[in-house]
Amino acid sequence: MAVCDPTLEVELGLLADGASCVIGCDEVGRGALAGPVGVGVAAIDGTLGTMPVGLRDSKMLSQPRREALAPLAVAWVLHSAVGLASASEVDEIGIIAALGLAGKRALAELFAAGVDVRGSVVLLDGNDDYLNKALATPLSVMTRIRADQDCASVSAASVIAKVHRDRLMIAADAATPGYGWSGNKGYGSAEHMAAIGRLGPTGLHRKSWLTISA
């Protein structure tokens, strides 16, 4: 199947229906064994310029292409943010609640930057509204399968969040070498699993996720 570039069709429809902004939202690091889980948000309104050429879901882009696109995506949207929940928070409250916590933190950054979060529609990739589970006052959230591939605001959030978290894991690899985080970004590669068995887990590992044979 040919890969199609994302469009603003869904977002423009939501704006036409009265949303003050549309906030594209995507998660990163959900399945990793080490490092935080992140939620990226990218707010757009009717004042957008031209979409960055080549913008797509972060999983469809090489690391160099993501690195090149991330600042273009940040400049293109109205405001963006990445919220994080730590490995220890994932252990304490579980991954779904941690996603909600990270999303809540990202939305708080948008609110602090002046985005009308309450009057916006959050366009969330997937079919699970983990955001409202974490909020005292519900927001207008629209879940959509493949939104990260089809909806440009969500593609932008995906790229921004992925690059942000990757840089954190590359820095963590320099500070705590041996686990290959600059390459595997905390996911369970063979190299990473062997290092856990040899060196043991670190403070960045989701210890409740680890099963290490004796």
UniProtKB/TrEMBL annotation:
<dbReference type="GO" id="GO:0004523">
    <property type="term" value="F:RNA-DNA hybrid ribonuclease activity"/>
</dbReference>
<dbReference type="GO" id="GO:0005737">
    <property type="term" value="C:cytoplasm"/>
</dbReference>
<comment type="function">
    <text>Endonuclease that specifically degrades the RNA of RNA-DNA hybrids.</text>
</comment>
<feature type="binding site">
    <location>
        <position position="26"/>
    </location>
    <ligand>
        <name>a divalent metal cation</name>
    </ligand>
</feature>
<protein>
    <recommendedName>
        <fullName>Ribonuclease</fullName>
        <ecNumber>3.1.26.4</ecNumber>
    </recommendedName>
</protein>
<keyword id="KW-0540">Nuclease</keyword>
<keyword id="KW-0464">Manganese</keyword>
<dbReference type="InterPro" id="IPR022898">
    <property type="entry name" value="RNase_HII"/>
</dbReference>
<dbReference type="GO" id="GO:0043137">
    <property type="term" value="P:DNA replication, removal of RNA primer"/>
</dbReference>
<dbReference type="InterPro" id="IPR036397">
    <property type="entry name" value="RNaseH_sf"/>
</dbReference>
<dbReference type="GO" id="GO:0003723">
    <property type="term" value="F:RNA binding"/>
</dbReference>
<dbReference type="InterPro" id="IPR024567">
    <property type="entry name" value="RNase_HII/HIII_dom"/>
</dbReference>
<feature type="binding site">
    <location>
        <position position="125"/>
    </location>
    <ligand>
        <name>a divalent metal cation</name>
    </ligand>
</feature>
<comment type="similarity">
    <text>Belongs to the RNase HII family.</text>
</comment>
<dbReference type="InterPro" id="IPR012337">
    <property type="entry name" value="RNaseH-like_sf"/>
</dbReference>
<dbReference type="GO" id="GO:0006298">
    <property type="term" value="P:mismatch repair"/>
</dbReference>
<feature type="domain" description="RNase H type-2">
    <location>
        <begin position="20"/>
        <end position="214"/>
    </location>
</feature>
<keyword id="KW-0255">Endonuclease</keyword>
<dbReference type="InterPro" id="IPR001352">
    <property type="entry name" value="RNase_HII/HIII"/>
</dbReference>
<dbReference type="GO" id="GO:0046872">
    <property type="term" value="F:metal ion binding"/>
</dbReference>
<feature type="binding site">
    <location>
        <position position="27"/>
    </location>
    <ligand>
        <name>a divalent metal cation</name>
    </ligand>
</feature>
<keyword id="KW-0963">Cytoplasm</keyword>
<dbReference type="GO" id="GO:0032299">
    <property type="term" value="C:ribonuclease H2 complex"/>
</dbReference>
<keyword id="KW-0479">Metal-binding</keyword>
<keyword id="KW-0378">Hydrolase</keyword>
<dbReference type="Pfam" id="PF01351">
    <property type="entry name" value="RNase_HII"/>
</dbReference>
